[in-house]
Design brief:
Elements: H1 2-14, E1 26-30, E2 35-38, E3 42-45, E4 49-51, E5 55-57, E6 73-74, H2 77-80, E7 88-92, H3 96-105, E8 111-116, H4 125-132, E9 137-141, E10 143-151, E11 154-161, E12 167-172, E13 174-177, E14 181-183, E15 214-216, H5 228-246
Helix pairs in contact: 3-4
């Protein structure tokens, strides 16, 4: 499992002498001065900083979404799809993540209804073809969710037809939301490096940012593909570059 892999990697890292500070709050970060304040008490001064804060799934801020998060609404197919064996599921979204996750969920669920605001899916061609060939998955185009409710064990998604403005109810055993991700930048305060148009950190091939001696790796980086393997690659490149510069 992924959490065990993370555990083994952290233990291996500790054996090299790396100091882990866990269960702490980052009070402030000054990238220019290379200073990080934790728990409003301790100031850490360093020569180099690597930003690896990742991303967070976007929410729709629809009524009921926050209330039923983790209680019928999920943002992680690999985490929760297994709970919907032979059940009906609603998937919100129509991009790569939504299509790919819907295909994964179809291994468990008996029926999937996708809700997409546009008149065509925006995922890659191969993923779309696989979805269209899957008899378990149907798509409602040009619809958006307006509200989430729970009645007994069922999740009710109230959806609006963007053409007619009429609203209907869609009943399912669970709802998965895949409407993109946002970069986790709030911890950096106002000392942000240069970002792209989507709010991800721009770097060079060595993962250096626009701020001297500050690097960024993983999903926070402006790039085409965001996978575990690409994140590991980023970390390797940044670590080797820093090691060379410090030595």
């Amino acid at each position: 499992p992924g959490y065990m892999l993370a555990h083994y990697m952290s233990e291996q890292t500790k054996n090299t002498g790396v100091d882990f500070k866990v269960a702490v709050d980052i009070t402030s970060v000054d990238l220019a001065k290379k200073e990080i304040v934790i728990d409003e008490l301790e100031t850490i001064k360093v020569k180099k900083i690597i930003i690896a804060t990742g991303t967070t799934p976007n929410t729709m801020n629809a009524p009921g979404e926050k209330e039923y998060k983790g209680k019928g609404i999920s943002y992680c197919a690999t985490c929760d799809a297994k709970y919907f064996v032979d059940k009906e599921v609603t998937v919100i979204g129509g991009g790569n993540s939504a299509v790919e996750e819907a295909l994964f969920i179809s291994k468990f669920a008996s029926k999937i209804t996708m809700i997409h605001q546009f008149d065509a899916l925006t995922a890659n061609k191969t993923a779309i073809e696989q979805l269209q060939a899957n008899p378990k998955i149907k798509v409602k185009y040009e619809h958006e969710p307006r509200k989430f409710e729970k009645r007994g064990d069922k999740m009710i998604t109230i959806i609006e037809d963007l053409k007619t403005k009429t609203q209907t109810e869609l009943e399912a055993d669970g709802v998965f939301v895949f409407v993109g991700f946002k970069a986790n930048l709030s911890v950096l305060g106002n000392t942000l490096p240069e970002l792209d148009n989507w709010g991800y950190i721009q770097t060079d091939e060595d993962r250096k940012t626009s701020v001297a001696d500050v690097y960024a790796i993983g999903d926070i980086v402006s790039k085409k593909y965001r996978q575990i393997t690409t994140a590991i690659s980023d970390g390797t490149v940044a670590a080797m570059t820093i090691s060379k510069e410090l030595n």
